[in-house]
Amino acid sequence: MKTDQLTSARLQDAFGRRVAARLTAGTAELPYEITERLRAARAQALARHRLVVGVRTAATVSASGGAATLTGDESMSLWHRIASVLPILALAAGLVLIHTVLNEQRANEVAEVDAALLTDDLPPAAYADPGFIQFLKQAKE
Questions:
Q1: Domain identity same for 55 and 104
Q2: What is the pTM of this model?
């Protein structure tokens, strides 16, 4: 429920910013008195909004040496933490799957060569011949 409220508040803030940008774009041709009243009204509206919503903690950037760390709201829920770890787990599972498939393909290739050697009608002396490996390479092509 809390995340729904945060999402709703963020959507309202985004809408308010869009409206403010449109209103600001149209103030160039307005007289100074009207522009000042609008500015004062905006300031009051922002003050009321801050009282109602409260000040949210903003993300801060901490720099040490050549590295920077982005820190934000420390009250991440369990679901947010799980959701942030899921892409890493999916990547690791994909890498393990690729490794397994490639190993199985190599094993099948070696098994095919072994089966061909064992079922072929060659005399035992042919296996000791130095040109036998060259013969196998040519037979594959």
A1: no
A2: 0.36
Task: Give the max Cα distance, the chain.
Answer: 107
Q: Give me the mean pLDDT over the 111-117 stretch.
A: 84
Query: In sequence order, what DSSP letters do the residues of 74-102 get, joined into one string?
Result: S---HHHHHHHHHHHHHHHHHHHHHHHHH
Cα dist from 16 to 43, 46, 56, whole Å: 13, 10, 17
Question: What would the two tokens of residue 22 be?
Answer: 């449109």
- What CA–CA distances, in Å, run from 18 to 14, 28, 77? 6, 17, 30
Domain that holds residue 22: 1-75
Q: Are 135 and 122 a contacting pair, CB within 8 Å?
A: no
**pLDDT number for residue 47:** 83
Q: Quick check: 123 and 132 in contact, CB under 8 A? A: no
